[in-house]
Amino acid sequence: MDFDELIDRFGGVVATHQLLAAGETTASIRNAHRSGTITPIRHGWYRTGAADEEVARAVADRGVVSCASALRRHGLWVPEHPRELHSRVTRHERRQSHDRCRRYGRPSPVDGAVDDVPTALQYAARCFDVEGFIILCDSALNTGKITPECLRAHFDDAPMFIKRAVAKTERLAASGTETATRLRLRSAGLRVAVQHQVPGVGWIDLLVGDRLALELDSVEHHTGVERYEEDRIRDRKLVARGYFPLRLTYAQVFGDWDATYTDIADIVAHGYHRSRTVRGRHPALNVLT
Fold first, then answer.
1. Do the Cβ atoms of 64 and 101 come closer than 8 Å?
2. Predicted confidence band at 279 (pLDDT cuts at 50, 70, 90)?
3. Which secondary structure element, helix H or strand E, spans residue 129, and what is its range?
4. Could you give the percent of the chain with pLDDT greater than 90?
5. How far apart are CA 227 and CA 219, in angstroms?
6. Which of 95-109, 167-181, 221-235, 273-287 has the highest mean pLDDT?
7. Distance (Å, rounded) from C-alpha 179 to C-alpha 22?
8. How many whole angstroms separate alpha carbon 49 and alpha carbon 38?
9. Which of 92, 125, 243, 288 has a CB 3.0–4.6 Å from the CB of 213, allowing a cystine?
10. Rg (alpha carbons) of the chain, rounded to whole number
11. Beta bridge partners of 197
12. DSSP label at 94?
């Protein structure tokens, strides 16, 4: 193997069994060590010079990267968490677990320095609250990193409340902000559809009832003149088709939800989420008068 590939494939940190499985021999590994191409971290583990320092630190501390830290490296939408580095131990290092992430049941076997998505989700189930766990599952499903069948199979032996959480996941959810809003509104008894298609407009993130169209914005995706114009055109077209568009930001969902929900509840109390036609007038006019 070209040892530069270790950076891309394993974050620059690799176990002896991975090198052997990739076609290396004991002699070639020894020669790479002698030449300084790879450096021992601890027994059975090596790093390259350009290794991810967090990964190397986790392995040096007799663990591997897991949970949120692993999922972030796999490109998932990860909620905020007070712990900076999420790592876990192997079955053989259980006495060294102290403040590491844990899963329900026995520790999983280690295949590499960074857990795969299914294994990392098993540790996230215990590290995050239910909402955060569902956000992670939604992101894994939406990005195609796991299938619904695989997700259910990996939590066959989990506590019942985790199984119920898995049952609430949505493959179409495009962001954690969208997932959190969906869960909170459904828990309040509202009917919420995910990624509802409106002819002539496209897909809207969440549809509450028949007409309340929620769009979940973020700084990354809704700044700049061009996107600003596109968003306003979408809102105009939604109103023209009888919808009541409402945009929510990350901060409004995760930082000021009480006030945000109060306004949504007022909108619902006025019936603006329902399809209404009065004396043959356009539904949009019924909403605005």
1. no
2. very low
3. none
4. 70
5. 11
6. 167-181
7. 39
8. 7
9. 243
10. 24
11. 203
12. G
Query: At 134, is the pLDDT very low, low, confident or very high (cuts 50, 70, 90)?
Result: very high
Mean pLDDT of all residues in 73-82: 94
**Tokens (6 digits) for 196:** 């509802």
Q: Would you place residue 90 in the very low, low, confident or very high pLDDT band (cuts 50, 70, 90)?
A: confident
Q: Report d(CA 200, CA 231) in Å as an integer.
A: 14
For the beta carbon of residue 216, count every other beta carbon within 10 angstroms.
25
Question: Which two three-digit tokens encode residue 53?
Answer: 């320092």
Token pair, residue 2, equals 């070209």
Please write the tens of the pLDDT for every residue from 220-246: 554 555 677 888 888 899 999 999 999
State the pLDDT at residue 208.
96
Beta bridge pairs of residue 226? none
Task: Check the CA dihedral 217-219-220-226 and report its sign.
Answer: positive
CA 243 to CA 273: how far, in whole Å?
8
The DSSP bridge pattern shows strands 64-65 and 45-47 to be unpaired
pTM above 0.85, yes or no: yes
Residue type, 54: E
- Given a contact cutoff of 8 angstroms between Cβ atoms, the answer to whether 119 and 67 are in contact is no
76, 117 Cβ separation under 8 angstroms: yes
Whole-angstrom distance, CA of residue 141 vs CA of residue 83: 24
Angle made by CA atoms 250, 194, 262, in degrees to the nearest 5: 50
What's the CA gap between 193 and 82, in Å, rounded?
Answer: 32
Per the CB < 8 A criterion, the answer to whether 192 and 202 are in contact is no
The phi and psi torsions of 206 (rounded to 5 degrees) equal -140, 140
Length of the chain: 289
CA angle 126-124-99, nearest 5°?
65
